[in-house]
Amino acid sequence: MSMFKLDPDNVKHYIVDMFLRNKESDKLFLAPYNSGAHWVLFAINAVSEVIYYLDPVHGDYTNHPGIKTMLDTALKVYRAQRGAKVSKQKSNNITWISIKCPRQTNNIDCGYYILRFMKEIVEKNKTIIPETYFANSSPSYSEEDLMELKEEWCQYVLDMKII
Length: 163
Known about the structure:
The chain has helices at 8-21, 65-81, 110-124, 143-160, and strands at residues 28-34, 39-45, 50-54, 95-99. The chain is of the alpha+beta class. The chain has a 4-stranded mixed β-sheet, covered by helices on one side. Helix 1 packs across helix 2 (65-81). It is globular and about 50 Å long.
């Protein structure tokens, strides 16, 4: 398997362009990220300048300094391009929030957990994610929960004739 890395400047410009194309709506942008061995999810509210971090092994977003810097910079560029006024106190601060979410119980299901997190976020259709967003969920997803997601994904691929 070959891995490739995207140019951070190109990614940053793509993100800023996406924010600008959607600047009239307060919404969450979902950005799944694979560090090479593990999937995590960044949910970004560009208007309120909040980045939510979801990690099924409960790691910390500071473990990803490159993507943190890139997302912070993208939000600052977006802020400048839309002419947003912010207080001096806020000018250098992007709010990062780690969300307590269901924890994977093995070393291979992180991608499915991220897909499940995205599904639940989209279904709830909110622009914020409280730290207790998954409070009513069990500590981890059941095999049935993950199987349901795998079946939905397979059906989607078949319906879209992707393969």
